[in-house]
Write a structure and sequence with these properties.
By secondary structure, this protein is mostly helical. The chain has helices spanning about 30-35, 60-65, 70-125, 165-170; strands spanning about 20-25, 30, 50-55, 145, 155. The two termini are about 85 Å apart.
């Protein structure tokens, strides 16, 4: 059911011979008779500056929809909304399929690399430990005697950390190069 059209000033409705109706930019409907009574470019109802548009069958469909019944509008726009929704869903599914395919390829690559790493680790012989020959005399520490005559306290060259030879002596060395590093 369409919305009844009537003049917002005199409340007349369209009838045969009907006066023409205009819509103001401020949202009022005014008949041709009342429109002539008011000031030009001013709404007869709210007295604000406005423009008018003659209502007819050639009026823009967006303006005509203001006078359509809600049920008619719902049917009209539900068809458009359904088409838009289907279009967007189709594109979402397309993107999802692409992402799934990309994920499957990455998972396959990861599986291959993991298998290769496992094979390399299985081929690697058991680790052997060898110690480097360092003499035990390299651990000797030096100390400087105290110099009390010139006011200095005793000074020692004993490091608070183990020496380099102590560190390297306790390190184990793998004679085979790492399979991950390039030689």
């Amino acid at each position: 059911m369409a919305v009844p059209v009537f003049c917002n000033s005199c409340f007349c409705e369209p009838r045969k011979p009907t006066p023409r109706f205009s819509l103001t930019s401020c949202g009022h409907v005014i008949c041709e008779v009342c429109l002539q009574k008011g000031k030009k470019d001013e709404c007869l109802i709210c007295r604000t500056p406005c423009r008018t548009l003659l209502l007819s069958k050639q009026t823009n469909p967006d303006i005509q929809s203001l006078f359509m019944g809600i049920d008619t509008l719902c049917k009209k726009y539900s068809k458009e909304i359904t088409q838009i929704s289907e279009f967007q869903e189709k594109h979402r599914k397309h993107l999802l399929a692409y992402q799934r395919q990309k994920t499957a390829k990455l998972e396959e690559s990861l599986k291959k690399v993991t298998q290769q790493m496992h094979q390399i680790q299985c081929m690697k012989p058991p680790e052997q430990t060898t110690q480097l020959p360092f003499s035990s005399t390299s651990r000797n520490r030096l100390s400087i005697p105290s110099r009390k005559q010139n006011g200095y306290s005793s000074y020692s060259l004993h490091p608070s950390h183990p020496s380099t030879s102590e560190i390297t002596e306790s390190m184990e060395i793998d004679p085979l190069p790492s399979p991950i590093r390039k030689v």
